Amino acid sequence: MARLPRVHLAGVPEHIIQRGNNRQVCFADDEDFAAYAHWLKAYSDAFGVHIHAWVFMTNHVHMLCTASDNRGISQMMQCLGRQYVQYFNRRYQRSGTLWEGRFKSCLVQEDHYVLAVYRYIEMNPVRAGMVGLPAEYAWSSYAINALGKQSALCQPHACYLALAESEVERQQAYRDMFKGEVNEALLSDIRSAAKSGMALGNDRFKQEVADLTGRRQQMGQRGRPVGWRKQI
């Protein structure tokens, strides 16, 4: 089956996932994480991409980004991927592929969904059982968004800024988002959208994306249409 083209829209947030090939380790230590972060900063600046939230796990990465043009994210990820593979292969005296094919991405509706993806990304280490709290994991944007740690890499989305007027109140409101039970239906929607590459949002948002891009954003019905036998 032919691969569907990715959908990118300038100014619309995207959830990005890139995994190691066969889920192999892509980051062996802090030096690897730091190298990836360095080149992510360089290429996000070069191609006009704002990084709002991120987490680097041992065998995959998640990011929430917004690009200033339709090609920015693809260009950033291509350059970043090549640069990091060269570094990783040289450091560990290996050759061949590192990433699991193309990165996955989906557009994210701002209302009700952007902040949910922020949380989804930064809770990854907790869901994986690596830490008990998101603040305990060093290689994510949680300390920046929730605790005010300074970072040149992370740039806040308008939905994050709208949480409160002052930085202190905003960080408290952000921390409050991580309390309470996870909405399992929303969690499932985030995973499904990332896997399929279709937009994450309500039906109106999906239709708007489809109209702008010419690619449907709703899952098609599986199987043969009703009454197909009568047409034979």
TrEMBL record:
SMART domains to which the protein is assigned, alphabetical: Y1_Tnp
Query: Region Disordered: start and end of each range?
Result: 213-232
- Residues crossing the lipid bilayer are none
| Composition bias type Low complexity, residue spans | 215-224
Q: Which residues form the Transposase IS200-like domain?
A: 9-124
From the Swiss-Prot or TrEMBL record, give the protein name. Transposase
**Source lineage:** Bacteria, Pseudomonadati, Pseudomonadota, Gammaproteobacteria, Chromatiales
